Amino acid sequence: MEGSAPRRTRIQQEKRELILEAALEVFSANGFRGSTIDQIAEAAGMSKPNLLYYFRRKEDIHETLMQRLLDTWLAPLRELDDIGDPLTELRSYIRRKLEMARDFPRESRLFANEILQGAPRIMPMLEGDLKTLVDEKATVIKGWMRAGKIARTDPWHLIFSIWATTQHYADFDVQVRAVLGADRGGNGRFEDAARFLEQLFLDGLKPKG
Amino acid sequence: MEGSAPRRTRIQQEKRELILEAALEVFSANGFRGSTIDQIAEAAGMSKPNLLYYFRRKEDIHETLMQRLLDTWLAPLRELDDIGDPLTELRSYIRRKLEMARDFPRESRLFANEILQGAPRIMPMLEGDLKTLVDEKATVIKGWMRAGKIARTDPWHLIFSIWATTQHYADFDVQVRAVLGADRGGNGRFEDAARFLEQLFLDGLKPKG
DNA sequence: CTAACGTTTGTCCAACCGGTCAAAATTTTG
DNA sequence: CAAAATTTTGACCGGTTGGACAAACGTTAG
């Protein structure tokens, strides 16, 4: 048994990777409809018909990209576990999400683009796997609240707020850099963000007293 | 002196409004390149050549829309003022931003689309007016911190986090609704979000001791 | 009424875009 | 090496899209 996946030669493996890398660059910058096959082909260093030899349709590239993305994208949340100190767990989840925004901004923007357009291609996944996962983690968080380990709030909105604040640094990167200016908007901005978010999520804004 | 703006008849005023409303609907749902003049014309109840009589180019519609948007979009931040209790000021800023996400989600998505694509059309504004405004408000917030009215943190990232968390409910609305499900994802979700965000920004997640 | 002006429409065009196809070039295999 | 299989390319196609344009239609003022 070779499995149901199509058999692929070495060249196919390599060229497909090349195309996916190029497509990630182009799609994340211009959105699906804003990107052309020619752009992707050029970014991958090949001709359009050649690219279409490896992916029959533009949608196939996008779909493959999206499937891969979702796996790795939700990994940090999957790791949020019941073992260990709750506040530490949450803090490291926030940190990992922020690192992903820093290291994989294109993936974040690809995802944001898809959601902004109404998630036409991944709606079933949102209502299925994603909802299941979030519900599961919400239960874990609720347990922490009942045990008095963290303050009582809405676990779903807590997760949303972590997604929102961390992904903001990838999706709205140009705005963040423009507002921070040349000095504060340099490479240190992610460490500043990490420090700020840690304080926000742990202590809020009330002055200590 | 009539000013430098082109003289417009009553019909022009009305039709232009009609077109802008239709274009907001279409652009915010499909992005700039994902939208066609035909779509906008149909949504506005007129023919394509007729629409092009009022706006010579597709870009002109988008530009007009964007200029109007920016004025109203930053109004809540402009109102953040030094008079009144700092924590109350911040709380009401958050509430107002969340209300805007609820009441003007199309505007939020239009803006998000523009930023995601690298803000090609509004970059000067981000580096100019927006940066100036944010820097100004950051100074106000710093004053509050020096006076011990709120905890010490980075004011710029504080503003980013408010933008991120509130706009998330407009930009990622489909995801929010999908994850919350039919019951919790109903109209009450904005009130839940308001309650959660108030707690997050004021007290954080540490359990009360 | 009619001339001037503003509005609307049908037709058309050139550029672009996703995708096909057959033939040529290359690589793999016996 | 030679046949078979795979990869690459140039030419092409039909549909879409942004936009031009002139003619027709409607409105308003003298």
Tell me the layout of helices and strands.
Two copies of one chain form a homodimer.
Chain A: H1 10-30, H2 37-43, H3 48-54, H4 58-73, H5 75-79, H6 86-103, H7 105-116, H8 123-146, H9 155-171, H10 173-184, H11 189-203
Helix pairs in contact in A: 1-2, 1-4, 1-7, 6-9, 6-11, 7-9
The structure holds a DNA duplex (30 and 30 nucleotides).
Structure description:
Two copies of one chain form a homodimer. The first copy, chain A, is built from eleven helices and no strands. The first copy, chain A, is an all-alpha fold and 209 residues long. The first copy, chain A, has two domains: 10-64, Arc Repressor Mutant, subunit A, CATH 1.10.10.60; 74-203, Tetracycline Repressor, domain 2, CATH 1.10.357.10. In chain A, helix 1 (10-30) packs across helix 4 (58-73), helix 6 runs parallel beside helix 9 (155-171) and helix 7 packs across helix 9. Chain A binds a DNA duplex (30 and 30 nucleotides) through residues 9, 11-12, 15, 36-38, 46-50, 52-54, 56-58.
